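Researcher: Going back to the complex we discussed earlier. I've cleaned up the inputs and rechecked each line, so this should be the final set. Can you rerun the prediction on the complete assembly and write out the structure?
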Amino acid sequence: MMKIDFSGLEPNSLLRGNPNELLSGLSTAPEFQIPNTNDFDGFQKESVQMVKPAKGTTTLAFIFKEGVIVAADSRASMGGYISSQSVKKIIEINPYMLGTMAGGAADCQFWHRNLGIKCRLHELANKRRISVTGASKLLANILYSYRGMGLSVGTMIAGWDEKGPGLYYVDSEGGRLNGNRFSVGSGSPYAYGVLDSGYRFDMSVEEAAELARRAIYHATFRDGASGGVVSVYHVGPDGWKKLSGDDVGELHYAYYPVEPTVEHEMAEASSS
Amino acid sequence: MARYDRAITVFSPDGHLFQVEYALEAVRKGNAAVGVRGTDTIVLGVEKKSTPKLQDSRSVRKIVNLDDHIALACAGLKADARVLINRARIECQSHRLTVEDPVTVEYITRYIAGLQQKYTQSGGVRPFGLSTLIIGFDPYTGVPALYQTDPSGTFSAWKANATGRNSNSIREFLEKNYKETAGQETVKLAIRALLEVVESGGKNIEVAVMTKKDGLRQLEEAEIDAIVAEIEEEKAAAEAAKKAPQKET
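Model: Rerun complete. Updated structure for the full complex:
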């Protein structure tokens, strides 16, 4: 049976043996040598399992009347070791689009920067900004072409384009969802609890930011893999703006101040 | 000069790409095609050479759809056109797949022009022997657009343009008579322009009208005949008006 010839569908393989230097490596997925094992499927499964627990983080984003709020913690963990408390998990793709990081830090950072390049090229070629739909689709297509190769990315693309505020969830399994509220990471169940119960469409920017802050804080309280600093960003019609960055330890005492007890006062009196 | 038209990738000493210029000659021998952009309507008209009696004229459509909101007419080698049109149609769908958005007219024109240019800079291939007129509405802003590409791979936007046989006369006519029109007026202007070089009659021209709401609509022969009749009347009336004052003096 003759194999169906899909060569016409490849946009850049117009003339055989005439590689298009400008675009090589940018729009087509680079070719990958398959690892030299006997059991390729088993190897794939193992490599996926190795990276799986690494989505230790809490990120969330939601659309409301005034735009999109994006918030994340800043802890990076390697198993039980906290490797950093100050990771930037909200990546600035361009002045009007943000991406969040969950999963492999290197994977998220690299592919978000690559997405930023593609968005800029689209702008230059088409004289208009790319839509959030288009940007998320570009990322999802790339991640899908690497499916099964061990990438670990669970990201949300948030932005404001001609159609208004936009929010998409994209992951390394190749999934892409459009929605109003998302939370990604090991702390997401806790964040969803606070977010879903406190969410209203018509909030002010301050109220929405406070809701996001509290949701992340509660996730860091219960989830060991989340912590550090809560960053909150707002995406409006003129682009994104960072609203706050609060240490969760300090937030804890702000939300739950310690009641001074009799022993405290006596200890202070004797020391002063 | 004759030495420089065998391997097409070379320049002549005075800076010409002869194969490209010969391709433009092929275009000049092709059917006349005209495009007119109105405020809410864009019209494409193509000269139809007399169809042999036994030929099924419906199988020789000269104005084609590239997508729901983009259409194309061309002058030159029809077989080359088929290849270009297929590639453009695939690109329209591929764009919808990768960015979930329909193409803009400018994007697909740039793609087609890029394709035509590639074939002027590769070994062993010849340029496409056709110029295209591409019309469509921007999927978001709804602004109508008319673009033209040629075998060298250049493209530009136009308010009204013609290509193919006698395109210079048609263009002169359009330059003299163009004004911003809408709806039926745009159709009339396009047909009047085409009638400058084509024998009048519904069976000698093919006209298609694109609106934002209804997309591309091919006009029936009867409709075209009716409009041609209107135009003839208007022309006769204008002639009579010109002659009448002369009689009085």
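Model: Worth noting: Chain A touches chain B at residues 8-9, 11, 14-15, 18, 125-127, 130-131, 133-134, 137-138, 141, 162 (CB under 8 Å).
Researcher: Good, that matches what I expected from the previous run.
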